[in-house]
Amino acid sequence: MSGPGDPVLDALSPWLGLSTRDRPGVLLAVSGGPDSTALMHAAAILGRATGASVQVATVDHGLRPGSDAEAHAVSQAARTLGLPHAILPWSGPKPGTGLQDAARNARYALLAAQAEAIGAGLILTAHTQDDQAETVLMRLAAGSSLAGLAGMRAERALAPGLRLGRPFLHLPKSALVAWCQARGIPYLRDPTNVNPRFARARLRAAWPVLEREGLTPARLARLAERAARDEAALRSAAARALDTALLPGATGGAVLCLDGAALAALPDAVALRCLDLALSRAGGAPRRLERLEALVLESLLPALRRGAPIRRTLAGLLVAAEADGTVRLAPAPPRRRRAADAALAAGAPELLGNGDTPAYIGEVCTDGPEQPRGGSVLGVAHAKD
Questions:
Q1: What is the pLDDT of residue 169?
Q2: Which among 138, 152, 286, 352 has most CB atoms closer than 10 A?
Q3: 3-state class of 241 per DSSP?
Q4: What is the 8-class DSSP label of residue 33?
Q5: Mean pLDDT throughout 162-187?
Q6: What's CA 123's distance to the chain center, in Å?
Q7: Mean pLDDT estimate for the chain
Q8: For 270, what's the count of Cα atoms within 13 Å in the CB-facing half-sphere?
Q9: pTM over cut 0.85
């Protein structure tokens, strides 16, 4: 075991004791690059010292020649370290568009299934500060608000009884590369990381120019921390506001009834999130931020503040402000619901930041599998191995 002050071991050590009693195992997601290779070797060191139950999985997306050989190389390295390893192939047809998003969804679904199979309550990935900075930049280009600019969370729920953790999110990638090199640990290099087809690769090529202007990964990561802190405060205020605004005994086919006067008195940022939470509670579909803003800021709040009735549809729901100031959320007529679903399914433009790239608002992160109907997200998700 390395001496005190080892940044990689110090970052990972607290995480190995976070599994639940019912599911005590830890599953490492290892692709073979320097980040996840450092994660695997550090976990082997700490596991021997602490007795933590650690296993490894590699998702083979099957998207390029040689990916199966790379997965087997990781398997051999894991077994050399005494860590059980599983290769998780992404089988079936691959989409022609949105490939990285689909790959991300498949990856987390496969990892969650493997964690369930081995009794692991925690999945650890090796995302770094550099990955966080790229995520923030991509969401900034997409016009995301605070929840998107908060980037990836260090820890979040992935499924019932299963947490996803990122112990290296505060470490620069260079620290993990140096850690491997200092120990003579070989690692793989993924050619997609420099493929200009993908937005992350294009951003990596732009880093020298951005850093000369002071836009460093560390500063973007700090922005993510601040955005996460402020977004948490706004969401908490919105949840309290929704509890206050809810009216008992929804009638006339409504799923929820809200006190319009209470909504109209809220600051716009809180009212926006309050309505988003209400839409989710009423079973609304995921919705774009710009459409939520148009509903709440351009239609609903002005109508409530001048006492005028309106009827709008969003996320498969009819949102109606009545003459008495009550706001009712009810299922939208089928024709409007189908139109909303078709609009949501429209693909994003190919180039980052071009066109009307969708942003979403809500609590669900965009760095894991798609959430059940009713969830909503802020920021555009782009895959990262």
A1: 96
A2: 138
A3: helix
A4: S
A5: 96
A6: 14
A7: 84
A8: 18
A9: no
